[in-house]
Amino acid sequence: MTKTTIISLICVLCVFSAKANNLKTIEQIHIAYKNKTTNAQHVTQAYINRIEKLNPQYNAVINIDPSAIEQAKALDLLYANSKWAGPLHGIPVLLKDNIETKGVLPTTAGSLALKNNITNKDAFVVKKLREAGAIILGKANLSEWANFRSSYSSSGWSAVGGQTHNAHDITRNPCGSSAGSAVAVALNFAPIALGTETDGSITCPASVNGVYAIKPSMGQVSRNGVIPLSSSQDTVGPMAHTLKDTLLVLAVLQGENKKDVSTHEFVLNSKELTAKSTLKIGALPSDKFTIQTQQLYKKQLNALKQAGHTVTEIEVTDNLDSLFADEYYILLYDFKAEINHYLSNTPKEVKTKSLEALINFNSQNKETEMPYFGQDILTKSQAIDLTNKDKYQRVKTRYRALAKSAITNLYKNNDIDIVIAPTVSPAWKTDLINGDNFKGSSSSLPAIAGSTHITLPVGKVSNLPVGLSIIANINQEQAAYTYADIIDKTLSLNTKKPE
């Protein structure tokens, strides 16, 4: 090979790499593949290079899948033979590290107790991703045990991955528990990442890092192969640079899985959905959020009004006094029952086989597992009496019915198309001693009711992103998707993501 040939080859590879680094959406990547300006191998390598360069500053990614390049090569070979794997052909995806995958990577939930939890099994959502042609790029950091260990924890911290930092200001918190997933997308470590949510764990980090995300409705996406917190509320959902991409990924993920009895063959309910140029929007109060967030929200409402939409200020009229105490009881109960089951079925290399053993492990490894905060939530969960099933069912029925009623009544009593609210206030300063400093959240009602919750990155406060929540009516996912798109286009995305 001559010197000129080598230089030419290097130049081609540089162009491929530069092109790959500028790609953020599924459509952009697929157009580049079809125009042959890059390929899956180069795109995947470009993301790996970016992670290796920037991740030490952010701790968003725990592990890169060592098979990622081989996955990409296989897809390039497929395309060379005029075949297309599916709607996510050659799209790298990062997974929150409570989602199991085939291969050599452990699934840790951020805990050193699970550092050897190599199940070599794909979660149901990972199978769906692979079937659609996606490349499993690696595992993202998270709040340890999905933020269900200590009442005073710092979101985005785990013993395995350390403290994840906000994509827009490393002194600020990324929220959680899907911290690494949101930061990774915001930093363009991958075009797509999956998170999980029990109450706010997808929507909050997406909001404070300035990306799109969907917390799906209950039963829409399987949790099989995901380390559980609570089967009553756990969901898996996508994060991306556009609403279109989150919807495309969600369409891949959703569907019935017999190993997750909550799931069903998902069919969108769009019988009463008609085309609309203007919407009747119900705006929930913003008084629990920071003053600057309230001011931004008012500007957003005015922009929607100026675009011709009707905006009505609405409030929850149902009595929610018992809701959050009931939720906490259900989560404590579910976690004890379900983490005991999960741990008892981990590989033999994992020595921690129960919640009680986990609590003991943390105590025995205090310097590495509990350098900043404790495990009061775990001990409260361990104290729950699992034999009191009558109380459990009574509380579960009550709290779910109340949350559903509260959402249904918002729509029925106000004659509106869609409900909106700020998702959460801007990111707070990370504090490993005192823990998180939340100012307002819109996650709990849709999380408990099991309805769809979308967050759109539509503005900034002091150069920090603030998301707008789209809260769907019960069983009205298609309306939420459609109206979220209208609102997103009306407000326009003006949250600049870091390069």
Topology record:
Blueprint: H1 3-21, H2 26-34, H3 40-58, E1 61-64, H4 68-80, E2 92-96, H5 124-131, E3 135-140, E4 157-158, E5 162-163, H6 179-186, E6 192-197, H7 203-209, E7 212-215, E8 235-240, H8 243-253, E9 280-283, H9 291-306, E10 310-313, H10 323-344, H11 355-364, H12 366-369, H13 376-382, H14 389-414, E11 418-422, H15 444-449, E12 453-461, E13 464-471, H16 477-491
Parallel strand pairs: 2-3, 2-6, 9-10, 9-11
Antiparallel strand pairs: 1-3, 4-5, 6-8, 7-8, 7-12, 11-13, 12-13
Helix pairs in contact: 1-3, 3-4, 10-13, 10-14
Protein name: Amidase
InterPro entries: Amidase_dom, AS_sf
Pfam families: Amidase
Could you describe the 3D structure shown?
- InterPro entries: Amidase_dom (IPR023631), AS_sf (IPR036928).
- Residues 43-478 form the Amidase domain.
- It holds the Pfam family Amidase.
- With 499 residues, this protein is of the alpha/beta class.
- Among the domains are: 3-21 and 30-208, Amidase signature (AS) enzymes; 323-390, no CATH class.
- Helices cover 40% and strands 13% of the residues.
- The strands form two sheets. An eleven-stranded mixed beta sheet has the order 1-3-2-6-8-7-12-13-11-9-10, with helices on both faces. The chain has a two-stranded antiparallel ribbon with strand order 4-5.
- Strand 2 (92-96), helix 5 (124-131) and strand 3 (135-140) form a beta-alpha-beta unit.
- Helix 1 packs across helix 3, helix 10 (323-344) packs across helix 13 (376-382) and helix 10 crosses helix 14 (389-414).
- The model is unreliable at 3-15 and 493-499 (pLDDT under 50).
